[in-house]
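FORM 7B: Structural annotation worksheet

SECTION A. Query
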Amino acid sequence: MTTILRVTCAQTGAVSPSTPLLKTIEKACGMIKAAAEARADLILFPELFLHPFFPNDLKSDFDDFFLDPSGPEIGRLKDCCSKEGVAAILPVGERSGILRYNSALYVDMRGR
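SECTION B. Predicted structure
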């Protein structure tokens, strides 16, 4: 049996340090909706798409660019996936206690 998986790739563009996170999240939700309208099953976002690409910056404090996967910011993206019925790969800076990771979170079509 053959299963077809329709995959879309999001090109979010550069994020300015002054861009509010909520605005970037809403832009991503719009892309998830567009993926659903195109009948995609999965949308892939680029590395660290919610924030400016900070790893090449010579600053010492980047804590604001790391998110808790169970926090409200990722929760909003999960809600968008659930509403639109599209799975997503969300590459983000992940905060876990005192540790920081460059992670790719998978969210299924039900927002889990």
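SECTION C. Observations
The chain is about 25% helix and 25% strand. Helices lie at 21-37, 72-84.

SECTION D. Sign-off
Analyst initials: ____
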